[in-house]
Batch of 4 targets.
Target 1
Amino acid sequence: MAFDEFGSLISQICSRSTLAAGRPLAWTIIANPSAGGFTIRSRWRRHRAQLAASAGKSARNALREGGPSLTAQKRGSVGAPGLVLTRAAGHAGEITNALIQEASAGGGSPAGLPFYLVITAGGDGTSRDVMTSLYHAPAAIHDSFAVLRLPMGTGNDGSDTWELDRALDLLIGPSALARQRVLRLRTASGRGPFLAFNILSAGLDAFVTHMTNKTKGRMPGDSYKLWVDLAALFYDLIYKVGYMDVRATDSEGNEVHALREKLLLLAVGESGQRTYGSHKWILPDERNVCAIRQMSVFRKLALKGLFNYGTHIYKPEVMLWNAAVVSFSSEHPLLAQMDGETVLLEKEDFPATIELTEPLIPILKGSGSGRPYPRLSVSASSLSRQ
């Protein structure tokens, strides 16, 4: 794969970016060479064409002051300055920590220092590592950083857009810096906190994620889809589905929802209109919490396809609401997943709490989200008839 070509084209675009005008721009491209956007030939051909078109579009902008970060120059590719390829899980976080040290060493007023742009080109794991490092960085550092998550993975649920050219437009044309909140899972035992930046959930979907991670590369076809089908049949045999006590509050501590039921799944998003599992619309509207009641095997098989379109929200087993803090306890051990990383919650971990932080990590934002919202073909009024 022509990683040097990829890095060179991204660097061309960065050299004429409109981001953080008035400050030198120091960019670092952190790419996972095993990501599907590189290894799947049809995707790479499309991405290569989009990169070339975007580089041509950026040529209309003036050349700006700046260049690859010192960290990228030391650790990166000779053929494509600015590009650093990851070698293992966690490596993207190590690179980001080095960038944070580089920025911290500058001192002085932020106005006279470089602005650090971190571009991730991989899946949710790569972007999660980068975002986690920035979460732990000193607050003052955030004024000199921004992250752009390119959709170069297989699912790209945590990327800033679903198409590469839309993401590159955020560098070429007008864009704004926004702060993203972090999902934080705390436990009664003191384990954690565990962090997510898209969706944090517990139950059946975490089991699917866990088994997909264990068998990835060893099972034919789409292993995630296969485990969704298997989980519908066998999840209850492996993990007992008992009662869960759930209490949700808003940012001021006011209770917005409380329940005690047998739940298959509890999911909390950084916002509404979010997907996981390669664009499954678990949170298809503005509400950021979804809870799904236990149901028969036949009912699971009948409803699982609705997550592709978000129309599960009209079924009586599904509850959605908005919340800033969701506390829960379970009668039995329960798997949780944080953007594709899993942890088993035991009895001593309950009650566990999922909370949204204040807006924290700087990201690039355009006029739209870059995500094609689902077309919910079933009217809300139909809920009473189901």
Note: The CA atoms of residues 242 and 332 lie 6 Å apart.
Target 2
Amino acid sequence: MSRDQNARCSYVMKTDISSFERVEEFKYLVTTLKIRILFRWKLSANCYRSVQNLLSSSLLSENIKIKIQRDKILPVVLCGCETWSLTLRDQRRLRVFENRVLRRIFGPKRDEVIREWRKLHNEELNDVYSSPKIVRVIKSIRTR
């Protein structure tokens, strides 16, 4: 499968027993790969919505909220990611999703200068959340 849309040539790879031709989409676990990625994102969004009240609760510690994110949300997102061919758009969507979850976990921050509450910036999220980012995790799974 090629990301190059202009590469319309048909390539065939032959082995002793069989041959494989170049295709634009292929079946993986009874579904096409593009549909599977979109399906994963929808499932992860549903999973996030089901636990977002827990993630914003003041009764739970940040460590427990991070465990919920790591044990309940991430496996839904990462299922089958070893076959994904991530575009820059896909990587951006994953980062946005991850930052949305982290902002829910760590909550707003009180700005001492203007004395108002505001959302955490991406750099502040990187400082308070030391685990590897989701795109890096996917790339390490793919290389493994």
Note: The longest helix spans residues 33-55.
Target 3
Amino acid sequence: MKKSKKNSEAKPFLKWAGGKRQILDHITAAIAPALEREGRIPYAEPFVGSGAVLFEVLRRHPRKINKAYINDVNADLITTWRAVRDKPYDLLERLQFLKANYLAASQEKQKILFGEARERFNQRDNTDIDQAALLVFLNKTCFNGLYRVNSHNRFNVPHGRYKSPAIVDEESLLAASEILQEVEIMNSDYEAMLSGVKEEQHVVWYFDPPYRPLSKSSAFVSYASGAFDDHEQRRLKLFCDKLDQSGHQWVLSNSDPKNTNPEDTFFDDLYQDYQVKRISARRSINSKSTGRGKLSELIITNITN
């Protein structure tokens, strides 16, 4: 991909549960050997979320990646990614309008405006640009910047009380738009993504699936309707096997069950044929402050140094 000043300025335009900013160095270090051995190669990210890893990889290795593919099963999220890439100025115009109305309102009125925006978002009968603007607006004004939907795919996070929420970050959004011009954006199950890159060989993949819950209370976040349970974790492992057999290289991150149960070797057993590394990260096991602190997470890969 082209090296540009924008590569260093591009960063996530949404806050997303399970963001990878604090462990970026570990993830990029795991990916780096594949990039150092090859020439210019493609990069694929099937669970893109807010794109923290995508932007970091493109920032660090602009001349090593010739094409990037991103995907997420969340249709509203992908609509927003495409709006940022294809129509950033239209998106900024909508966001400026939402921002002006919101910041001019009283705190009581802001809560009403938030509720109205959430209802419009959940109707899902807006234009793509309006739907994307609503998602960004809700993300910046909801409680803790959380994206969560219920079993009916309705966004249900309550209003957050912020004095001056960063609803519009024009510089970052335009930087993201520029770097995304050479990125293909998909909305499918991750297995279907393989057909989208079938012409590519030796792709480097990074997987950030919904983490396996460490406790019942840590499983409250759902970014799409439908559960990613142990069956889904096993299905993902079989997909990684398929990639490995086809000559692709991959890195996967997930929670470490041993944080709460030293006898739980679910991932150690599942990925016993690959490298499983434990790293330190500050996370929250549950919604209570007593459940927060440094935990280990897993970096799993078929890439050898």
Note: The mean pLDDT is 89.
Target 4
Amino acid sequence: MFSGIIKSTGKVESVESLGSNKILWVSSDLSSSLSIDQSIAHDGVCLTVTELNSHSHKVEVVMETLKKTTIDQWKPGSVINLEKAISPLTLLDGHLVQGHADTILICIKITDLAGSWRMDFNLPSAFSGFIIPQGSVCINGVSLTVADLDETSFSVAVIPYTFNHTSFKYLREGNPVNVEFDMIGKYIVRQMELRSITE
């Protein structure tokens, strides 16, 4: 479990195909403090550390994860957000994030507001029930608050600290992002769907 509070970024050093899987080496300030079998969120995607050296760590990504995330588009040099798993004693500054991306969305507009940034993303109808104004959403591993919402898109406000300390400073209009919708909201929608079936 994660909180969506990013304290480190990493750089993809290498990408290798192994059957239908991909093997990635990622260098970061966090790598030297990690351990084998540890779960780390990579741009919001929970992956298991399988090998380490002094400055980088290795993860293996299976086909199912590749289909639902942007990882298949990563290449050497890509900068990604990293977060260690939280503990029961962790101060929850963001919101509860599982590290299980629901889908890939597209950044359709970035507006520099001279002190913050507004970022707009498309919203397919299949996911419209998972998001509410002023609710939480996780984008590339970052916990954010929904600023505006309409039938086909939503926006978030990004403060300077978040912009400068995450991969958001490299995000451009047209880029894909990993999105995990609020876990509690998804459970509520699921229960309502099941209730409508049984009634």
Note: Residues 133 and 146 are 5 Å apart (CA to CA).
